[in-house]
Amino acid sequence: MDIILLGPPGAGKGTQSQRLVEHHGMRQLSTGDMLRAAVKAETAVGKEAKAIMESGGLVSDEIVSRLIDDELASMNDSVGAIFDGYPRTKAQAEALDDILAKHNRSLDHVIELEVNEDALVDRITGRFTCANCGAGYHDRYKLPRVEGVCDKCGSTKFKRRPDDNEETVRKRMQEYRAKTAPILPGYEERGIVTRIDGMAAIDEVTDALEEVLR
Ligand code: AP5
């Protein structure tokens, strides 16, 4: 099963993707994670993407679509894909159709996490992750059980994303409204869109997602 998780920054796409990976052995294809890895490795793609990401703009359609194509090429056909943060423009949505056809795959669901944008700023500006294993935490909603120690791997090093400040988050939301939300009607015409209340508690959102996948 191949699905798209759609929603503005902080809607919970990454959080829910990780759960689907754990529960169903699906693979998360997050263009944000791929780009951050490229920035860290200082590749040509990373050098081009760095400033754009830090400003809250969108990296070029060609670059992100190539990343997705390469990931799918490396995947076993029987493993379901969760597209997290891709597609984000009409051009990317069209490219995804071509890429899926090339790999003999097709989209089963597009799931939109509906959220209140003001709450998202709070979610994003408070989040941090373990620098070692990537486990996610939040200053107010999800602190490690032992202060300063990762629950999952015991590391004491944490990090925050450079684009998680209020100004950049607002710009990312603007981009979502202007360029990403307009791709939904095309999927609605195909009858594959489900909307889920992304403001509910994390477990409730997971339950709703599981219901869709069933
Ligand atoms: P990307 O990494 O995709 O970021 P994003 O879409 O802005 O989404 P986030 O990762 O910030 O949020 P999320 O929805 O995953 O929320 P999360 O689960 O972490 O993209 C970053 C940048 O890369 C872009 O700005 C762009 O420059 C570039 N880029 C990436 N893809 C691109 C593309 N296709 N084309 C062009 N450019 C691209 O949750 C957030 C916080 O909320 C966490 O702390 C979590 O614990 C908490 N939380 C989650 N759910 C709940 C809940 N239900 N209740 C309470 N708290 C919750």
UniProtKB/TrEMBL annotation:
Compartments where located: Cytoplasm
Highest taxon, organism lineage: Bacteria
Broadest EC class assigned to this enzyme: transferase
Chain positions recorded as Zn(2+) binding sites: C130, C133, C150, C153
Annotated spans, NMP: 30-59
GO CC entries: cytoplasm
Recorded metabolic or biological pathway in which this protein acts: Purine metabolism; AMP biosynthesis via salvage pathway; AMP from ADP: step 1/1
Residues covered by the Adenylate kinase active site lid domain: 127-163
Molecular function (Gene Ontology), one example: AMP kinase activity
GO biological process, one term: AMP salvage
EC numbers: 2.7.4.3
Binding site for AMP: T31, R36, G57, L58, V59, G85, Y86, P87, R88, Q92, R161, R172
Keywords: ATP-binding, Cytoplasm, Kinase, Metal-binding, Nucleotide biosynthesis, Nucleotide-binding, Transferase, Zinc
Annotated function: Catalyzes the reversible transfer of the terminal phosphate group between ATP and AMP. Plays an important role in cellular energy homeostasis and in adenine nucleotide metabolism.
Family as reported in the entry's similarity comment: Belongs to the adenylate kinase family.
Domain notes: Consists of three domains, a large central CORE domain and two small peripheral domains, NMPbind and LID, which undergo movements during catalysis. The LID domain closes over the site of phosphoryl transfer upon ATP binding. Assembling and dissambling the active center during each catalytic cycle provides an effective means to prevent ATP hydrolysis. Some bacteria have evolved a zinc-coordinating structure that stabilizes the LID domain.
Assembly notes: Monomer.
Record's protein name: Adenylate kinase
